[in-house]
Amino acid sequence: MKFKILALIVLLAFSGFALSETLSEVSLKQANFQGLVAEGQEVQQCATYAFLKEAIAEQKGVFIVFSAHALFSPASQGNAKVSVFLNNFETLAEFKPVDFQNGWARVEVPINGLLEKNSLKVCAKTTSSITKVEVLDDSTIGYYKMPKFELKKAVSETRPIIGRELEITLTATNIGSEAATAKISYWNIELNIAQITRGDSEFNGIIQPGQSVTMRYFVKPKYAVQMDLASAILEFDNIFGEKQTVYSNRPTIWVQEPEFKVKAFYSITEQKAFQPGQSTTLVLTARNEGVNDLENISIKVVKPEGLIVSKDSFENISLKAGASKTFEISASSLEEGILQIGCSVEYSDYKVVNTKCAPLNIEFEKPKQNNLLIFAIVLLIVGAIIYAFIYRPEKKKAEK
């Protein structure tokens, strides 16, 4: 029995709405399908339903959907399945219990695969835990106008540098014939492998037929490995009032380690020994000798305990390829000795990479006495001795 119904279904919910138009819908019972039961362990039963291709299938924006109504017992979760084949050879779907919402699972029948006379073969297969599978006779095949979505994920480059921003583009297109509210989000498992830095990674709004919505956001990969980015997720209410999820593709990227060639070294304005407590100015130079621009470089001063410095680290340094930056440090010591100052250069986005800068020795010593002054003091002492023991006694004799 064939019939044509024009229905406008407006689904109002917190998430939005979807529009659909049912052009034709037939239950399998109307085609003398008596239902299908597979019972026992590891049992499979099949039945075939014949149908004609309707003329409305040629209309633009028409979709054919087979809706299977099935029951599983005694367990509702497991590997039992309901399989659907078109014209005995093309597998349309293999539904497991998890694929059914309130007992229903649906699959689109490709119009370009239809003949004038067609058949749907439905098979039910049990397992050791699910020993009964029923496909009910109120399962349907229908012609509809409805929303349908594609979700694509693309990256700006496939060999990004670790810690450097990578642009991700999400494009959602309604290739269906009716509007619907769509909610698009990233899968939060992606945060385990990449840090989202900026951009739009979520969307919630109405997408019209033929309309595309594009979002762009940026991430920094955390690990230098080959990785498949997580799928983006699009959710909407289908024409049957069920939540439907569309997953994007998963681009593969090969994250590269940066060419990390930062050379750091100290220089000092005065090459001399300094007195304890006296301060001197050191110049720390960092130079990027690699071919990649670098960000988030940290330099930590490495010094002995007795050396006092005005600053012990420099953070968030950016260096373009071939560029240099200088930093001034005041250094002093309350102790005598030769003290060595060095540094550690670290790329903050990739903690494994670090280099040491060339060390510098700074000498602190007490001031040396002037040799002429010492000689004069010695002469003064010798003269005093001569005067006291030789000149004075001779003078006393002369007076007598």
What does this entry look like structurally?
The chain has 400 residues and is mostly beta strands. It has four domains: 21-145, Sandwich (Jelly Rolls); 149-254, Immunoglobulin-like; 262-364, Immunoglobulins (Immunoglobulin-like), CATH 2.60.40; 369-400. It contains one helix and 29 strands. Strands 1, 2, 4, 7, 9 and 10 form a six-stranded antiparallel β-sheet that branches. The longest helix has 29 residues, at 371-399. The radius of gyration is 42 Å and the shape is rod-shaped.
Name the features.
400 residues; Jelly Rolls; six-stranded antiparallel beta sheet; Immunoglobulin-like; disordered N terminus; five-stranded antiparallel beta sheet; mainly beta
SSE layout:
Elements lengths: L20 E7 L8 E4 L4 E9 L10 E11 L7 E6 L3 E6 L8 E6 L7 E9 L6 E4 L4 E6 L3 E7 L10 E9 L5 E7 L7 E6 L3 E5 L4 E10 L4 E3 L3 E6 L5 E5 L4 E3 L7 E7 L11 E9 L5 E9 L4 E3 L3 E7 L4 E10 L3 E11 L6 E3 L3 E5 L6 H29 L1
Antiparallel strand pairs: 1-10, 2-9, 3-8, 4-7, 4-9, 4-10, 5-6, 5-8, 11-12, 12-16, 13-15, 13-18, 14-16, 17-20, 18-19, 21-22, 22-26, 23-25, 23-27, 24-26, 27-28, 27-29
